[in-house]
Amino acid sequence: MGVLLAFVVTLLAGLSTVIGGWLGTQPRVLRRDILAAALAFAAGIMITISVVEIAPSALSSLDEIVGRTAAMLWVGGALLLGAALVVLIDKAIPHHVNPAEIGGGDQLDRIQAGQVDARLLRSGIFLTAVVALHNLPEGLATFISTLKEPAGGITLAIAIAIHNVPEGLAVAAPIYAATRSKAQALLWATVSGLAEPVGGVLGYLILAAVLPEEWLSLTLALVAGMMIAVSFMELLPAARRYETHYTQTLAGLFLGAVVMVLSLLLLTL
């Protein structure tokens, strides 16, 4: 019964990305200002959670094992490796044949006319992969917490679900804007969220408590590097292409950071 409850709680926390995915499929996201703000909002979320939560957590865990200096080197290396992996993935994903480097209103006109914007689609796929990786350790944490203490695990799941909503929006908005397909956008948002129960179940099956702590810590730092790289390589440049005024990107970036900080504070309650 305890295992079933832990799985259900973790699954529901992960599937909250579907709520964000639905928000990302609303027609208003096709407005240039809304799309720019949404992309910058996603960047704010990714950068903030990487810098404020994930990297410091990895550093703290390794500090107790190998010392401060070595921990900084390991975490720094993992961050750089994560960023390098994003660059390699970027090179590996096929670009649209002779993609038009169109910006501003012309580019949005193509989207509204039903033409696929390959760059936005790539951004959405990048986000799906990175959010899924990020959700794996969250799923493990939720699963184990619920298994050991159901009340505490459910509280943790609620907080995680709250900040999974904007992550689902971050995944769905660029995919919907690129393809005009609500089904595709919701599918990718769902896939990113399903990583949480997958992480929980896999962690349980391979006895996560026995895994070396530094392995999990370095994995977290690796994901943080990927999230930061995606934000600066994909999300912010895309936001700048669609903005009608620079304040839209700045406001989205700031709001994303604020929302993520508030959701992280809930985890400490």
TrEMBL record:
GO terms for molecular function: zinc ion transmembrane transporter activity. The chain crosses the membrane at residues 36-59, 71-89, 185-209, 215-237, 249-267. It is found in: Membrane. The keyword Repeat does not apply. Coiled coil: none annotated. It is a multi-pass membrane protein. Keywords: Membrane, Transmembrane, Transmembrane helix. One of its GO terms (cellular component) is membrane. NCBIfam families: PRK04201.1 (NF003243). This is Zinc transporter ZupT. It comes from Ornithinimicrobium pratense.
